[in-house]
Amino acid sequence: MMAPARVLVVDDSATMRGLISAVLNSDPEVSVVGQAGDAMEARAAIKELNPDVVTLDIEMPNMNGLEFLEKIMKLRPMPVIMVSSLTHRGAEASIAALEIGAFDCIGKPAPGDVRPFHELIDKVKAAARSGYRYQTMRAAAPQPVQAANANVAAANYRVGRKVVAIGSSTGGVEALIEVLKGFPVNCPPTVITQHMPSTFTKSFAERLNRICAPQVQEATDGARLEIGRIYLAPGGERHTVVANPHAPVCRLLDKPPVNGHRPSVDVLFDSVAELAGRNAVGVILTGMGRDGAAGLLKMRHAGARTLGQNEKTCVVYGMPRVAFELGGVETQLPLNAIGEEVLKLTAARKEGSE
């Protein structure tokens, strides 16, 4: 039996520290070893306690969570889970934190409602398990993208009749940026399901739109799939699928969660398998659990080309591992090779070809 994951809880609110600690300590595989009310206390506690995981409030006095996170990632890379308010400002900060290197983010619950914090237990345990590999990855990580490369050369790329579907979860913000930053302005229509709270996906789509050459938007019901556009599934409320083979569009469906998620990667991949068959490319990136594994296998059986992120470059090798073991992954690649491979698989070989 593995030792409990040792957690330091950092929040300027004593009430919130107590709430987070109580939820985490309810699981025998997690142990809160300390609490801190600001960055200075947290710095001393990290040195003294050497925790496996830190939960970190974004809004703190003196030095905010983002500034402290940057220092952690430069001086002592370790898994950090950000705790953010579910507001537009909180969402923007959370996306920035994930780019800096936070393991994951979770929204603060409404007063009296601790249910959103129960998923924190699984995130903490996954973060603790990622430990050494995560530290190694962060030490070698490139600097976050600061601006879009407006001069992406598209002259040598012409998309065939292809649709790209991508699924990701924990670690997905950095992974998606790495994959999409090389897409040209005339990229294939691309639909993405990334597990994140509903208030976060709009901010993430806006961030991607600023740093990518194609147009990136939150998917809306009835949005036509067009060359040069990337559609990010809105979080929380509905599933995103593709439909209508004669004039493909996004559809948002009011259906129960699948694999514990809404939107679900499996639901997206299933729809792409049915809509596009061999005229599709499926990609599964870093993430906890198994969402997307069965759907990717369905895509492959329908004739689609399928890619999975390899273990070495995953923050959490969960979803890609299950997909690979099921046989859904045709080719495993390191993260920095996936975007280029997608473009190879979707490029038209000659005039009139797919």
Reconstruct the topology from this structure:
Layout: E1 5-10, H1 14-25, E2 30-36, H2 39-49, E3 53-57, H3 65-75, E4 80-84, H4 88-100, E5 104-107, H5 115-139, E6 163-168, H6 172-180, E7 190-194, H7 198-211, E8 215-218, E9 229-232, E10 239-243, E11 249-253, H8 265-276, E12 280-284, H9 293-301, E13 305-309, H10 319-326, E14 331-333, H11 335-346
Parallel strand pairs: 1-2, 1-3, 3-4, 4-5, 6-7, 6-12, 7-9, 8-9, 12-13, 13-14
Antiparallel strand pairs: 10-11
Helix pairs in contact: 3-4, 4-7, 6-11, 8-9, 9-10
Q: What is this entry, summarized?
A:
The protein has 354 residues and is α/β, with parallel strands linked by helices.
What does this structure look like?
This protein is of the alpha/beta class and 354 residues long. The chain folds into two domains: 5-139, Rossmann fold, CATH 3.40.50.2300; 163-346, Rossmann fold (3-Layer(aba) Sandwich), CATH 3.40.50. The chain contains eleven helices and 14 strands. The chain has a seven-stranded parallel sheet with strand order 8-9-7-6-12-13-14, with helices on both faces. A hairpin with a 5-residue loop joins strand 10 and strand 11. Helix 6 crosses helix 11 (335-346). The chain is elongated, with a radius of gyration of 20 Å. Residues 6-123 form the Response regulatory domain. One of its GO terms (biological process) is chemotaxis. Belongs to the CheB family.
Which properties best describe this structure?
354 residues, alpha/beta, Rossmann fold, seven-stranded parallel sheet, five-stranded parallel sheet, 11 helices, 38% helix, chemotaxis, CheY-like_superfamily, Sig_transdc_resp-reg_Me-estase
